[in-house]
C-alpha cells in the first residue's frame, strides 16, 4: 500500500467516527498549527491528496481504538447483535473473546462503537440492518437458501450476544404459513420480529453458547406470551437456558445494576448452552451474587466538581418539572423528577434523558423549606448528568476516568447510554460463563472432527 493510500485510508476510517472539526482539533492539540478542518474536508471529498508528516499520522492514529492486551491470542470468538455502543461486548472481550461480527443499525451508535472497539479487518465484519444477513424481509428467498446465506455471511463463532428489542409475536404469520403448507415451529411463531433474526442465526451457526438481554418486562410482555415463545424457540433449537423456570422477585435472570453502580436498572439476562455439548450442568445466574463488589461507587464518586452551565436546568424548565411533580403528588401518583444527592441510588437512566433529565437530577442545594423562587433556590437549581457522568453511571468508565470516547452530540450520547446496559453486570456474567464457553468450544471442535 502506498503512503497516499495509507493516509487516505486513515482519514476515511476516522471520518466514520469523527467530524472534520474533531479530527483537526485533536491534531492541533498534539501538534499546534497543524491541519485545519477545511484541509481535511478537501481530502475527504477527493479535492486534494492527503499529505501527512510522520508525526501527524501517528497523532491521528491515537484516535483509533487499540487492540486488547491479549491480541492476537484470543480464547474464543463471539458476535455482537443489536450491539448499541458495545456494553455487552466489553465483558466478553475482557475474558479473552474476539468479536468477529457486529450488527447495529443506528449510525450514531456505530460511530461510538467504532471509536471504542478495535476491529481486526482480517476477522471482523460490520453490518447495519440484521435483516440483510438473515433475509427475513425477503419472501422470495426460500428458508433453506436463507440459512446457507446466513452461514456464508456470518463468521463461525462460539458465543452469540444480542440485546434484541421487545416485540409481541403475532399468530398472523402462523395462519398464513398453515394455509400455504409451510414450516411450523419458531419460523412461524417468531416471524416478523427481530428475535426471529436472532433465532435464525442461532439455527444456522449453532454457537456453543448465547447471552440475550432485554428489559425486565419481557417476562410479563403480552401477558407472558412473548417470553414463552422465546424460551420455547430456544428449546426447539437445542439449547438449555439457565434458571428458565425461576419466577417471582427471587428470579436470578433479573439482575439489578445497583449491585455494581449507583443506579437502579433491572434487566433480564438469558444465558444458554447447547445441550449436546453437556457443559450446562450446575450453571445458575444466582452465582452472580458472588461477584458483587464489596464496595461500589457512590454517586458522588462519579460526579464532576465543575460542569458547564448548559447542564444546569433553566429556571423555566425547573419550575415546570417542580409544579408537574406537585400536581401528580396531589393526585396520589408518583410521577415527577428524581432529585438525587451524592449517597443516593438513581432511577433508571432512559433514552429520553436528553429531553429534560427529569429522572436523574443532581441536587445543587435546592431547599424545599424555602419558597421556590427564593434567590438561593433559583441559584442552586438542579442539573442533569453530563454524558461523561452517564458513562460512569453505566460502568463504561470508572471513578475519575474519562477513557470511553464519546464522538457524538450530547443528545445522541444520552440516547446511547440510556439504551445501553450496565457494563459491570455483563462483565460479571461473562466471567461466570467463561469456563463453560471454553469447555463447550473444545467439545464442539471434537464433535466436528468426529463427524468429519
UniProtKB/TrEMBL annotation:
EC nos: 2.1.1.37
Parts forming coiled coils: none
SUPFAM superfamilies: S-adenosyl-L-methionine-dependent methyltransferases
Top-level class of the enzyme under EC nomenclature: transferase
CDD domains: Cyt_C5_DNA_methylase
Catalytic reaction annotation: a 2'-deoxycytidine in DNA + S-adenosyl-L-methionine = a 5-methyl-2'-deoxycytidine in DNA + S-adenosyl-L-homocysteine + H(+)
Keyword Methyltransferase attached: yes
Pfam family for this entry, one: DNA_methylase
GO molecular function: DNA (cytosine-5-)-methyltransferase activity; DNA binding
Active-site positions on this chain: 166
Residue intervals of the DNA methylase N-terminal domain: 10-64
A GO biological process held by the record: negative regulation of gene expression via chromosomal CpG island methylation
Keywords attached to this entry: Methyltransferase, Restriction system, S-adenosyl-L-methionine, Transferase
Family classification: Belongs to the class I-like SAM-binding methyltransferase superfamily. C5-methyltransferase family.
PANTHER family according to UniProt: CYTOSINE-SPECIFIC METHYLTRANSFERASE, DNA (CYTOSINE-5)-METHYLTRANSFERASE 1
NCBIfam families on file: dcm, PRK10458.1
Name assigned to this protein: Cytosine-specific methyltransferase
Organism: Cupriavidus alkaliphilus
Amino acid at each position: 500500500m502506498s503512503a497516499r493510500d495509507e493516509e487516505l485510508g486513515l482519514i476515511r476510517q476516522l471520518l466514520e467516527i469523527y467530524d472534520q472539526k474533531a479530527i483537526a482539533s485533536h491534531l492541533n492539540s498534539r501538534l499546534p498549527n497543524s491541519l485545519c478542518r477545511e484541509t481535511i474536508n478537501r481530502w475527504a471529498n477527493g479535492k486534494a491528496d492527503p499529505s501527512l508528516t510522520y508525526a501527524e499520522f501517528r497523532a491521528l492514529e491515537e484516535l483509533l481504538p487499540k487492540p486488547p492486551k491479549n491480541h492476537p491470542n484470543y480464547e474464543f470468538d463471539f458476535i455482537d447483535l443489536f450491539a448499541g455502543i458495545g456494553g455487552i461486548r466489553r465483558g466478553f472481550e475482557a475474558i479473552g473473546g474476539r468479536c468477529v461480527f457486529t450488527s447495529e443499525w443506528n449510525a450514531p451508535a456505530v460511530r461510538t462503537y467504532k471509536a471504542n472497539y478495535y476491529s481486526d479487518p482480517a476477522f471482523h465484519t460490520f453490518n447495519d440492518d440484521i435483516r440483510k444477513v438473515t433475509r427475513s424481509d425477503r419472501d422470495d428467498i426460500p428458508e433453506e437458501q436463507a440459512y446457507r446465506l446466513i452461514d456464508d455471511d456470518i463468521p463461525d463463532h462460539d458465543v452469540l450476544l444480542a440485546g434484541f428489542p421487545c416485540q409481541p409475536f403475532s399468530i398472523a404469520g402462523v395462519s398464513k404459513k398453515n394455509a400455504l403448507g409451510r414450516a411450523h415451529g419458531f419460523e412461524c411463531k417468531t416471524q416478523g420480529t427481530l428475535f426471529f433474526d436472532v433465532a435464525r442465526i442461532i439455527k444456522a451457526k449453532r454457537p456453543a453458547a448465547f447471552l440475550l438481554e432485554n428489559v425486565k418486562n419481557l417476562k410479563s410482555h403480552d401477558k407472558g406470551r412473548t417470553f414463552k415463545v422465546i424460551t420455547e424457540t430456544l428449546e426447539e433449537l437445542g439449547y438449555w437456558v439457565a434458571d428458565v423456570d425461576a419466577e417471582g422477585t427471587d428470579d436470578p435472570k433479573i439482575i439489578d445494576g445497583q449491585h455494581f453502580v449507583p443506579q437502579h436498572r433491572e434487566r433480564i439476562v438469558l444465558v444458554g448452552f447447547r445441550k449436546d455439548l453437556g457443559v450446562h450442568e450446575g450453571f445458575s445466574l444466582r452465582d452472580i451474587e458472588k461477584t458483587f463488589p464489596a464496595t461500589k461507587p457512590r454517586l458522588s464518586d462519579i460526579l464532576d466538581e465543575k460542569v458547564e452551565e448548559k447542564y444546569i436546568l433553566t429556571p423555566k424548565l425547573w419550575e415546570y418539572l417542580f409544579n408537574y411533580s406537585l400536581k401528580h403528588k396531589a393526585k396520589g401518583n408518583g410521577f415527577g423528577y428524581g432529585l438525587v444527592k451524592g449517597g443516593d441510588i438513581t432511577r433508571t437512566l432512559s433514552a429520553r434523558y436528553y429531553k429534560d433529565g427529569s429522572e436523574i437530577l443532581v441536587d445543587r442545594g435546592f431547599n424545599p423549606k424555602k419558597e421556590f423562587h427564593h434567590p438561593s433556590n433559583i441559584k442552586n437549581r438542579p442539573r442533569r448528568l453530563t454524558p461523561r457522568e452517564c458513562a460512569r453511571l453505566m460502568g463504561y468508565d470508572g471513578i475519575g476516568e474519562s477513557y470511553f470516547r464519546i464522538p457524538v452530540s450530547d443528545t445522541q450520547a444520552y440516547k446511547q447510554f440510556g439504551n445501553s446496559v450496565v457494563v459491570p453486570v455483563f462483565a460479571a456474567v461473562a466471567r461466570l460463563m467463561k469456563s463453560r464457553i471454553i469447555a463447550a468450544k473444545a467439545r464442539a471442535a471434537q464433535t466436528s472432527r468426529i463427524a468429519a
